[in-house]
Amino acid sequence: MNIFMSHLVAEMGQDQTKQQIEKGLKLYQSNQTEKALDVWTKVLEKTSDPGGKFRVLGCLITAHSEMGKYKQMLKYALAQIDTAREMEDPDYLTEGYLNLARSNEKLCDYQKTVSYCKTCLDMQGTTVSLQLNGQVCLSMGNAFLGLSVFQKALESYEKALRYAHNNDDKMLECRVCCSLGNFYVHLKDYEKALFFPCKAAELVNDYGKGWSLKYRAMSQYHMSVAYRKLDRLPDAMECCEESMKIALQHGDRPLQALCLLNFADIHRCRKDADKAFPRYESAMCIMTEIGNRLGQAQIYLGVAKCWLLQKDLDKAQESLHRAEELAEELGNKLCTLKVCCLSEGMFRSRGQGEQLRQQVVKLLQCVEELELYCGMCGESIGERDQQLQALPCSHIFHLKCLQTNGTRGCPKCRQSSMKPGFV
Ligand SMILES: [Zn+2]
Ligand SMILES: [Zn+2]
């Protein structure tokens, strides 16, 4: 009788935990975030069921990620790993490490992200955790992109896409497409930079009836950036407005910051510095609040370009200096390269010979480290808008060079297959 009773009590604890988690989810989905957080925090304090504790931590991680509260997200991810260790369950442990990787990705700690992703991939879980591998690869791709390691980023995205296809996971496919859009913006293949987020938007239209609106908002944002780069500013404005509307409705601070930065850049492209500056400023407030240091570096770059438009070289130089500091702190070599390019032009126009020489040396160093050249013609990649194509080994070439030269293997790594990959 006693054993039966205590079993019953434990079961009730489990059921109640489950019920309360569901209650929180309903509140969260109807945009009552604070109430949902209250419910979940209470569950976390009171539950005796480790599985329930793990799950409620997962809810808290997602919610804090969406609000841009990345330090709290990291705290809950660490608690998840402790719980998974107590349970000695490799599937839970993998999920915990994935969340730890994601928290570090959001906090722009890219080296740590890569190493936690590797931990996930090395873990010998069951099929349950194997299904997480696609998400692990996506996070790893984002981290490599943050470190400007382009070939490895592309390799990771391609793997993530393959997992998405094999598991028929349209949400993952949608997220990878957005990341690929971002990837090609960096390498200045603007046709692909638009193609992938359009594909993401298509997935949202075809399959996304029950999805969170943030997927739509995300694809619209990435389309907007590509349109801006293609100088289709009215289209860029329209997509960015749509994205911002959703971001505001959902209290999605990280996306609001990205949209504000993009609005500022659109105004800068229209040579309207008066409208650009306050938007950069608002973007900076949120980026600082959430801890997106790469976003901050990008704002400083935009602000510097605006000052250059205004011909205020001192202020431009100050802003470039801030961007450079952040880029070096994060290990984002592409941002360092962009600072070098802008500084070089500025020192040249000012006739500051010594500083100019220093910048040229630095610039050449950056280009070499980034390996941004086409293995066929030897010329640079990512300097201007050009169509690119990757081989299955993820080495990247000019599309026209692959089409005209038609070799039997990759000239960079000699891998033989020439069949173009997904991306
Ligand atoms: Zn080439
Ligand atoms: Zn290769």
Automatic annotation (TrEMBL):
Q: Which SUPFAM superfamilies match?
A: RING/U-box (SSF57850), TPR-like (SSF48452)
Its taxonomic path starts at: Eukaryota, Metazoa, Chordata, Craniata, Vertebrata
Q: Which gene encodes it?
A: rapsn
Q: Which Pfam families match?
A: Rapsyn_N, TPR_12, TPR_8, zf-RING_2
**Domain RING-type per the UniProt entry, residue ranges:** 374-414
Q: Return the protein name.
A: Receptor-associated protein of the synapse, 43kD
Question: A single GO molecular function, which one?
Answer: acetylcholine receptor binding
Any single biological process term in GO: positive regulation of neuromuscular synaptic transmission
UniProt repeat feature TPR, residue ranges = 134-167
Q: Which UniProt key words apply to this protein?
A: Metal-binding, Repeat, TPR repeat, Zinc, Zinc-finger
Q: Which family does it belong to?
A: Belongs to the RAPsyn family.
* Segments crossing the lipid bilayer: none
Q: Give any Gene Ontology cellular component.
A: postsynaptic membrane
